[in-house]
Amino acid sequence: MNDIESISMKGSGGSKMPHSHSTPAGVDGGSRTPPTTPRKAGKMLAVRVQMLDDTITMFQVQAKALGRVLFDQVCKQLHLLEADYFGLEYQEPNGTKYWLDLEKPVCRQVGLSLIDPLLRFCVKFYTPDPAQLEEEFTRYLFCLQIKRDLAQGLLQCNDNTAALMASYIVQAECGDYVIEDYPDHTYLSTYKFVPHQDQELERRIMENHKKHAGQSPAEADLNLLETARRCELYGMKMHPAKDHEGVPLNLAVAHMGIVVFQNYSKINTFSWAKIRKISFKRKRFLIKLHPEGYGYYKDTVEFFFEGRNECKNFWKKCVENHGFFRCSVVKRVVRQKTRVLSRGSSFRYSGKTQKQIVEFVRDNYVKRQTFQRSNSFRQTSGGRALQGLEGGGYRGATPSSSLMGSSSISAHPLLPLGDPALETPALSLSCGSMTLDSPTTVTSVSMGGTIHRREDTATSFRTLTSIDVHSPATPSQVPAPRPMLAVSQQRISSADKPATPKTQENNNSVYANEKSPEKRTNGMVVETNASTVNTPDLSPVKNVQNGEVEDAEVRKTKRWPTDKAYYIAKELLMTERTYKKDLDVINVWFREEVSREAELEGEAVVSLIELLADVHGPCLQEMEARLERWESNARHNIGDFLYNTLLNVLPLYDQYLENLIPVLEKLEYYTRTSRRFDQLCRDFETQKHCYLPLTSFLLKPLQRLLHYNSIIDRLLDHYPKDHTDFEDCLAARDRLGESLLEGLSIINQAENLVQLCEMQRDISGFDNLVQEGRRFIRQGCLQKYSRKGFQQRMFFLFSDILLYTFRTQQPNQYFRVHGQLPLKGMKIREGDNKTGADFAFVIEAQGNQSLTVAAVNEEEKERWLEDLSMAIAHADADPKMPYLNLNTCNSTDEVSDSIGLETDRGSCGGAKASQRINTTVHVCWHRSTSISYSDQLRAFQNQLSGFLLRKFKNSNGWQKLWVVFTNFCLFFYKSHRDDFPLTSLPLLGYTVMTPSEKDGINKDFVFKLQFKSHVYFFRAESDYTFGRWIEVIRSATQQGHVSGSFNGKEGY
Hints:
Radius of gyration: 33 Å
Structural class: alpha+beta
Distance between the termini: 67 Å
Number of helices: 21
Shape: globular
Strand content: 15-25%
């Protein structure tokens, strides 16, 4: 919109008349102020924007418009929700590449030519975790960027990795390898994946392509991103510079910090945790480091660029990357106009941070556009963008495919360059719509300034999804409302759709519209209904759900199992998937870390799990095949599988039980005595696939034995004695009982040892917490009374001593010992009213030591009093129990010397702190609660995984997530194939219940989690799974005390 300027005109008289003698305006002889006239529009620029598939789109913007106006138009054209990952890049004649400054006018961008300007739409912030990209279209754009980086030689890697990534590209665009279409590697010869492509590399690509059969384009995209992110040069854009000695170097900035390369070999990394300040002075780029603890010999590091513009350009990129990846929120700062004496650049990052993007997209999930892979471009209502101003579109795609739309699995091979089919014009950039071809096109200019060739018959459609969650059918069951077809620009949840009658038989919903496509995943039905206005039949329709793209076939009436045994077997499968991935954390990821560092100490850990991980791969495949037969109403049974499987694997578990305690003791010894190995373990735990402490994964086989026992007990309770599976289940339980009989004592010993090891890592100021005969009893928060009043302290109760600690304010946030009290001779009495606390009590120890503490409520107080009383009685009754002193350090230096690696703890920065923030000690601190050893044992027996629907906070929509419950915490994934969780929810302090009437949840099998004002709703697929989730979550939210016994069935 043009600015309007008011121009005031004077009267025609030469002198100003007195007011009484003047003639009013509009009367003859008087003067009239002319109406305001619009100022002429400023200079307009025709800006070319090259998209990630090399198509060119023209945008008309004023030269004085801010860069954000142009960027917003591009993102609007794409219907891009996660826009802040991207930017517009342009290149100076000398080769320097700049990002378009969104807060500066287009005409004032450094180095941008205003004569036929060309900008490129690119990925600006390369996320280290592609799973955090919520939209499939965003992941698709990232893949296009990876293809470009690979082809241009920016993403350098070895040939095996390059061939693997190229094979994922081929799989996404061509579909499965078909030998009739691709008899040899020559179908790849006309395409450029990497600069050094040769026949040998093409053969490797073809061999990898064969292995990807069955992968959807969305899965291939995600696998491509997962492979690319592990490359050392992922997201690294080199900026030439020199060090203080004149040695040529390359600098790059990424999510972790500033990286220094010599040619393409990384020689140093300055992580954001090490950097205190970055600045530039003319050609000098300065990195000011924190003065202590990071092992670098200087506080300030200097680099020299070719000129000031290049130096400032890199500085701005560093500022933006730090703001995007490291900050939770970036405050908008109004830039100051340049004065006579400038105080330096006022540039700041002005977009959303990564954390804000994730929260924004999840909160606005229902407003997302549907991204569909098809043989057409993505387009707005009937537009086609101009293509080929600088070469054609992306040639590695199927006919007529580009960034505007993505191909589904195609039956056609890759077309060679120059094929006439590639001359089909491309459609314009859009999202969530489809345009039907028309013989007539009309050229027009849209209001956004984009030039289009508009299709006359173009009509868009919107895919609506709903999830039908089934339960065992009963004669009196009320039919659920049927999802209706509608045309909308928002995702419509099943709760919002009007109801029409439907019939239901044996848990199978039959709709009147037989052609409604369906996708069933893990027992949940996802129905996709497409509605168009005045459009011909669109088939096949593609259904996109949770990153998966599948052909939507004609809906067929099908009977799905409703037997309780089916859901028990399904629980076995779901938990087996999680168990196999947990084993792979040690057998694959930790093995790779150990082999890379040549650490012999880690071989004992890997060898403990190796054989179990190998044998459970075929077991998982057989389990999946059995469940598929069960769902297809073929002959099925589970008892013989359990018996034969346990017969084969239990000897390995017996060997594991025999070696578990020695391996845990070795692990504790190596981490205590070897600084190198301890740091290796700490670094490994910062990786996202290691979502639990390393020691927790070593206990997973023990948990699995208990879960097998629980599964078999449920089957025996369900089956009648004359059932074919009953005898097999009975024999399986008898064989399993022999191993568990020896395993129960090992479980107690191993769990106690693991708890002591983990506490030793979280507590500083002692010599050695792990000692023979010491048992953990309870940990939690109490308020300790002092001259300053009550202050929060973390207490640790063991069989011989009581420690109280405070949490440091350093980034690693460990607990430092503040005091210690022996249990021998200790007395407990009720507190007086002088402190004013309601739930106070006094602890008196030998040597006139006395503490007044208060719990948060009466229940917490009773737990502490009971456990303290029992522990004191046991200590007094055992005359041989020694008092093992802990040396409390008083200075920071002594703390660092006593534990040896405190500096290394801090060096892990925010990633390490966030990785351990879900451990029980930190959760107890934040939620002012406590947990006992018996609580740990009860939670040890209860684990579960499977799909749940999570209700969105601000809408009636539900999101399907893969959820794993373990270690008092829920971990959330997009699917069971993901290597690491998206986020987690510690459950200590939460209560689990069914929704009340005022919650307004009109769905079956929904449970509610609440802690203070935090409320979450989750929806299970059946009555059995609903009951199981309630059971296991209550094991984490209902606490007990140390007197609880331990056996194979307790805790349910």
